[in-house]
Amino acid sequence: MHMVFLPSIKMRWKNLFSISMELSQNSPQMLFSDSLKKLSFIRSIKCGDLVIIYERHDVMKAIKVNEGSIFQNRFGVFKHSDWIGKPFGSKVYSNKGGFVYILAPTPELWTLVLSHRTQILYIADISFVIMYLEVVPGCLVLESGTGSGSLTTSLARAVAPHGHIYTFDFHEYRAASAREDFEKTGVNNLVTVGVRDIQGEGFPEEFGRQADSVFLDLPQPWLAIPSAAKMLKFDGTLCSFSPCIEQVERSCEALQANFTDVRTFEILLRTYEVREVTVESCQEHDNGSLMGPPKKRKHTNEQNKDEKLMGQAVMARPSAEARGHTGYLTFARLKCV
């Protein structure tokens, strides 16, 4: 069964390799094209740029740099004019000596700071979707619905420089807000936003057999699956995101007619805090590992003063803010005829 998919996959990765080689010779940038220069890691900050203000891992904000403007937080007042000309990643100081970092608006950071018009996909789901949909430079991807544009921004980077994302949302206000966000992050040349009820009307016929991949984030995805099958190239891939298992069951039933290799995943992410701590009476084993303080024993005051030794140890523990269930990802591949 899987042998029929192999030539297509090989061609995609061959194209990816040739594009990467060409770009690596012409540009030192990590990202692929001039259309994404606002996401570059190596250029200097200019007036009008979107930047991410990083205070700590859970406190970040996206703002536009303007000559004469200021940014104020608990660390003091920061002048935008002090940032202009500095490279992304710089540490900048306030009038009180406090500091923040000025970071480039990568898709990963944008996911953490964007306005939540709808429930969004986070990094664990996004990375899995891009890999399993085999999204590479040059791909044409159809998406519905757009929502807050979290996934769309990452898809745009994946298809650059010659691919394109056509994303649809039935809500006109959300579509307009998404367009503004794509302008801010500099991926607007790679993304076209349309207003359309994909569940009721299906995808536009002009994309028939043109799409490499389709992504669905809809309340009733099974209604859009027949249209998606007509849009995909043979051997193309589809992914449907659903928060409830009942939605998954109905979607899988609809996929049986035209798709094969149907699989459903639930991505659970567990993060750890790893930091150095100070401990008392650290004793070291022969193998170099640390053991905790000994059990309490009665000592005189002089003994306590002499035997209280301070040491450094590395402690790892699960984060208190672990994310649980976000949704189910169902993947399928269009049958070859």
UniProtKB/TrEMBL annotation:
Its EC number is 2.1.1.220. Gene3D superfamilies: 3.10.330.20, Vaccinia Virus protein VP39. InterPro entries: SAM-dependent_MTases_sf, TRM61_C, tRNA_MeTrfase_Gcd14. It is found in: Nucleus. Residues 98-333 form the tRNA (adenine(58)-N(1))-methyltransferase catalytic subunit TRM61 C-terminal domain. S-adenosyl-L-methionine binds at residues 148-151, 169, 197, 217. Residues 284-306 are annotated as: Disordered. One of its GO terms (biological process) is tRNA methylation. GO terms for molecular function: tRNA (adenine(58)-N1)-methyltransferase activity. The lineage of its organism: Eukaryota, Viridiplantae, Streptophyta, Embryophyta, Tracheophyta. It comes from Trapa natans (Water chestnut). This is tRNA (adenine(58)-N(1))-methyltransferase. Keywords: Methyltransferase, Nucleus, S-adenosyl-L-methionine, Transferase, tRNA processing. The keyword rRNA-binding does not apply. It catalyses: adenosine(58) in tRNA + S-adenosyl-L-methionine = N(1)-methyladenosine(58) in tRNA + S-adenosyl-L-homocysteine + H(+). Coiled coil: none annotated. Belongs to the class I-like SAM-binding methyltransferase superfamily. TRM61 family. SUPFAM superfamilies: S-adenosyl-L-methionine-dependent methyltransferases. Pfam families: GCD14. PROSITE patterns: SAM_TRM61. GO terms for cellular component: nucleus; tRNA (m1A) methyltransferase complex.
